[in-house]
Design goal:
Blueprint: E1 2-7, H1 16-19, H2 21-29, E2 35-37, E3 41-42, E4 48-53, E5 58-59, E6 68-70, H3 91-102, E7 107-115, H4 127-145, H5 150-173, H6 178-196, H7 198-202, H8 209-212, H9 221-225
Parallel strand pairs: 1-7, 2-4
Antiparallel strand pairs: 1-6, 3-4, 5-7
Length: 252
């Protein structure tokens, strides 16, 4: 039902999660996800076990939206979740994982299609918006995609702890840079907002965060380096394509 190529610049061979077994074990324990050869697995924490090297075609449980393709018939069974707004963290994972559950073993990754994933600062939200959105949308996708058992809830909570630990380590090892400190603060803000509104999120009400984190609050240094003023290049108003984003029931 779907195929994805290999993103060649996603992870360096010198990544500590590849070189140091103890760190890899810690990341497994914290459900933060880690790297393997020719292996992919989607974790209930919303992180993944990802192939840092691909030598053959493998099965995937979810896709990255950077280079995923589907059979046309897939869209007769599922649609993208239009509750996910703005940069929409997780819309690719959501669609592909639901397709995997509907048609197990039908998603593949091939080493024969290769991609260098380029990112432009103008195509990203401010760091505050991104981190808050990520925490809210990830909790929504956890409730939506996985059984809400105690063990899965523990795995999800461990993943959040692992995420905080990762960025705390980056903050300490990067010379205590201000932008890294901000990211941790915004991550904690997003976690608090998601936790306090978990019942609301579980019902599918996921865009309250846009009112609390105003549009145009640009704290991302990438925007300043690119010479973009606050509010520019973030979320342009584009009319919906005819026949693609009509208002209709999504049947979830």
């Amino acid at each position: 039902m779907g195929v994805q190529g290999f993103i060649t610049n996603r992870v360096s061979g010198n990544n500590p999660l590849i070189r140091f077994g103890l760190l890899k074990f810690l990341w497994w324990l914290l459900q933060r996800g880690y790297y393997e050869v020719d292996v992919h697995k989607q974790l209930p924490s919303l992180f993944e076990i990802l192939p840092y090297r691909l030598t053959r075609t493998i099965n995937r449980e979810s896709f990255s939206g950077t280079n995923m393709s589907y059979r046309r018939e897939a869209f007769g069974h599922l649609e993208f979740d239009e509750r996910l707004k703005k940069y929409a963290v997780g819309e690719d994972k959501d669609f592909s994982y639901r397709l995997h559950k509907l048609f197990p073993g039908s998603l593949y990754q091939t080493p024969k299609a290769r991609l260098v994933h380029q990112e432009a600062p103008a195509g990203r939200l401010s760091s505050r918006q991104f981190e808050v959105m990520r925490q809210v949308y990830h909790l929504y996708l956890f409730y939506k995609l996985f059984e809400n058992t105690l063990s899965n809830k523990v795995r999800y909570a461990l993943g959040r702890m692992g995420d905080l630990l990762l960025y705390s380590i980056l903050f300490a090892t990067s010379g205590f840079k201000r932008e890294n400190a901000r990211r941790i603060i915004y991550m904690i803000e997003g976690l608090a907002m998601a936790t306090l509104n978990r019942n609301r999120i579980k019902r599918g009400d996921v865009n309250f965060w846009t009112e609390r984190v105003p549009h145009g609050e640009n704290n991302n240094p990438g925007y300043r380096r690119a010479g973009i003023r606050s509010g520019e290049g973030v979320e342009p108003e584009v009319p919906a394509a005819k026949g693609v984003h009509e208002n209709r029931s999504l049947g979830f």
